[in-house]
Amino acid sequence: MSKELDDCPCSGKNIRNLAAPWILLTLRTHEGIHGYELSKIIGRQLEELGISLNMTGLYRHLNTLEKRGMLASEWDTAAQGPARRIYYLTETGQECLLRWIRTLTTQMCLIDAFFEQVRTELPDQLLQGQLLPRLLLPKAPGELRMSGGCACSTETSGSEAQEKEA
Known about the structure:
The protein is mostly helical. Helices cover 49% and strands 8% of the residues. A three-stranded antiparallel β-sheet has the order 1-3-2. Helix 1 crosses helix 4. The longest helix is centred in the middle third of the chain and has 31 residues, at 91-121. The radius of gyration is 21 Å and the shape is elongated.
């Protein structure tokens, strides 16, 4: 793993803003696009979650990611209209994206385990809607699964349990 990623938010040290993984993932699949197009793609994804995209914040993140070597850019003067900066994901940026995926998977597993504990210890408050928004309430008692299962889970499937018993 690159030493330059040790202080990167993808390490899990600072997860308050998830703009970076959205930018890196979008540039991974839409290589060589300008900031406005990037904002439209990410904006559509976030709108589905009821979150608006801050354009100023997006350009600030692009600038920071480029300074940290995650992105590279160049001016596109061939297109009609004013010159636009085109962004590309670097090798370090791809490595950072993979680290974000691992970090967010771990965080998702921790959150999943936390809510399983909430379900166990506070079932009455949970079912009465005192703890979680209605969208996250279980459809039936004992049916709360935030992420639909977790790759980090220590639970075993029926076939794995049979193998362990044998």
